[in-house]
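Q: My collaborator sent me two sequences in one message, no labels, and asked for predicted structures for both. Can we handle them in order? The first one she listed is below.
A: Yes, handling them in the order given. First sequence, followed by its C-alpha cells:
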Amino acid sequence: MTRSPFRGFAVRSLMIATLLASGTLSGTRMGFAQDTAQPEPAPVPAIAPATVLATVNGEPITEGELELALADLGQQFSQLPPEQRRAAAMSAIIGIRLLAAKAEADGLDKTPEFRQHLDFLRDRTLVSALVDAEISGKITEEEIRALYNQEIAATPPVNEVKARHILVKTKEEALSITKQLDGGADFEKLANEKTSDPSGKTSGGDLGWFGPGQMVPEFEKAAFALNVGEYTKEPVETQFGWHVIKIDGKRPKPPPAFEQVKDQVRSILVREKYFALAKAVRDAAKVDITDPALKTGVEQIERAK
C-alpha cells in the first residue's frame, strides 16, 4: 500500500534489536505487506523429536535438533524444497558439531570472552522462550481481527483511479491523437495502434487501478485531475515521453483482505505485548548505569517509548 495504516516503532533496546535479528519480533507498523508468499510444497512427514537421524563421532543428532537448526537457519534455506532444506540443515549441524569439538579441545570454551558470549546467548534464548510462552502463544484470532479492524478504521481513505494512456515520442504525435479523439475516435483502438508502451499495445493502453505515489508526479497529477470518461486535452510529458491519458473509473482504495495481512497483524500484536511486558519488568527493577554518557543515551531511549 502506498499509504501507511500503521505507525512506526523505534527499536528500544539491544534486547529488542537482537530479538528482531533472530526473527522473534518480526513485522513493522509501516503498512501492510503485499502478499508475496509462494505455495508451500508438500510437508515432510512428522518424525518424533527424539528420533536419532545421525551420529557424529558417536554423538547422536536427533530430529529435534534438526528442527532447531531449520528454525535458526531457515532464511538461508528458504528457497530449497523441504528434503533439500533438511539435508542442508543436517550438513550444517555436522559441520558445527565437528568445529565446536575442535574449539572445545583447544580450550576456547574456557575463555572469559566465550563465557560472556554464552551467557548473552542464553539470556536471549530465554527471552525468546518467554515471548513464545507468555505472548505469541496466547494471541487469539479475535485479538488479531480486532486490531485489523481498528487499523483499517483509523486509516484515512485513499482514492485511486483506473486509467489508460497512449505513449508517444513527441508532443506533435500526442496532439494528433487528441485531435482524433475529439473527432470521436475510439481510445482503446488508438492505443493499440499508436502507443509505444509494449504492455498497452494489446490492452488498449490499460494501466489498471493505481493510487497516489504509484506513478511519476506529472502523470499522477494529470490523471487525478480528470473525471471519469475524460481524457487529457493537453499532452502530459514525463521522462518516458508524451502521454494522452483517459480515466475509466475512480473509487476509494479497498483495504487489504484480512487473510492477506493476518500474519503481519499478529506480529504487530506480539511486538506491542512484548514492549508492554518489557516496560513492566523494567519499571519493577533497580537499574544503575554508572557510565554518564551511556546513562544519558539509555534515558533518551526510555523517554521515547
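Q: And the one she listed second?
A: Here it is, processed independently of the first:
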Amino acid sequence: MSPEKKLLTRRTFLKTAGAAAAGAAAAACAAPAPAPAPTAAPEPKVEPTPVPAEPAVKGGPLEVGVFQEEGPWFDVTKELGDQFEKDFPGTKIKYTFANTASDSARSLRWEAGDPLDLDTGRWNNQAATTWDWVDNGFVLDLTPYLEEPLPSGEKWMDTYAPITRSFAVDQRPDSATKGKWFGVPQTIVLMLMHYNQRAFDDMGVEPAKTWEEFQTLCATINEKGADIGMKPICVSGPTFYYTCHWWDRMVQRYVGREGVEKVLFGDGYVRDDPGFLKAAKEIEKLVTNDWLMEGYEGSDFTAAQALFFQGKAAMIHMGTWLVSEMADVIPDDFVVGTFDFPTVADGKGNQESMFGTSHIFSIPNPEKSTSHEVNVPLAVEFLKRFTGREHTAERARRVGNISPNTNVESPPKLPGVGKLVDAAAGGELILYYYGVHWDTALTDAWMVPTQALFLKKIGAEEMLEQIDANLDQYRATAG
C-alpha cells in the first residue's frame, strides 16, 4: 500500500459506488546474576519469567454489512451472529444494509473515516472501480491471516475454491500489492438463465444453447403459454440494473470483453464497432416480439420476480442470488433450472465466457478509521465463520447460496448449477456489469438507456446515441 494518503479525485469518488498491531509482546525481567566464582565457572542461565499473554480476541462492537435486512438470508446470518456474541463475551453486532442501494452512502462513510467493520464492495480484482480503495490504503491486507492454519490444519486461504481468487486476490500486472488478499469470498454468483423446469417439461421444450435456438424457444413458449398466461421472459421491473445485464451479455458475445472494456474504462464509443448495434437490435427483439411478461413495465423488481415464481413467465436472467432473495415466495414444488446465456454465431467475443463474481468482504485499515477503533482480531474471527464451510453449507441448504469453499455441495434449490460452476472455473469468468455498478455516474451513463429500450421509449439506434452522449458527459465531469 502507498505509505502516504492519496486524496480521492472526483473520478475516484464516482467509482463508489498494514496489518493491525498484533498484541503486546512478552516482556520479562531476569533475576540478578550471581557474583562470578573464583574459578570463573560459567554463569548459570536464568530463563525469563513468561508474562501471561492478552486474550487473542476480545469482544466489542462490530458493524457487519448484510445483503438483506430480513428474510431467510438474514435469519441464518443472525443465527451465526447470535452464537458469535455468546462465544466472545462483550460483543455486540450491528447489522447494516450493504447492497447496491447503499453503495454511495457507505463509500462516503469509508472516506470520512467511519467504515463498517466488515463491508463488501471495497475490493474486487476485476473491478477497476474498486482499486482506489486498496491503492489509497483504506482496506486491510488480510494475507497474513489467510496464511495461518486453521484448527483443521489447512491454511485459511486454501478453504476457498480456486474460482474465487480471480476476484479476491490482487492480480493486476503492475500492482505493488500483487498476490495480496484484500478480502475473502462470501458466496459465488453466476449470471444465468433461470427457468421453470415444470413449465418446460409440460411444453416439451429444452434450454437453448444458441441465440437462434433461444428465439425459437421464446416463440414456442409465447404460443403454448398463451392459455395459461405465461410469457417467455420475466424482466425485473424493468430496473435498469436488470435490463442492462441482457445488454452486457449480448455485447460480450458480439463485441468481446476487450472491446466493451475499451468503451467503459477507456476512450472508445459504442458507435466505433458495428457489433454494438447488432447486439442492441437483437435485444430489441425481446420487446418488439412481445416476449416479455405482461405488466412488467409497472412492476418493481421484487414483485416481478415473485410473478416469475407464480408462473407468469417461463424464464428470467438473473444472478444465482435469486433463489435466496425470493426464498419466501418460491412454492415448495417449484423446480428451478439453469442454463447460460446463449451464444451467437457471428460474434467476436469468447462464446464460452460466463458472467459472475464472488462477493468479497473486507476489513478497513485501522489507520484510516477515525470514528472508532477497528477490532481486527474480532472481525477476522467473524469472517472465518461467515465465509467458512459450515455456515456457507447451511446457507446453501436453506437459502440457495453457492458456497465459495471447497468440499461443499451445491444448493439443492439450484439442481445442476454445480456443472455451470465447474464450467466457469475452467473458462473465462467476467465480473458481472464489468464492475460499473460501483461507479454511480458510469452506471447511469451505461445502464439507464437500456431501461428506456425495454420500456419501448427508444429504439436500438437511439439507445446507442444516448450511451455515447452519456459517456462524453461522464468523461468531462469525472476528469
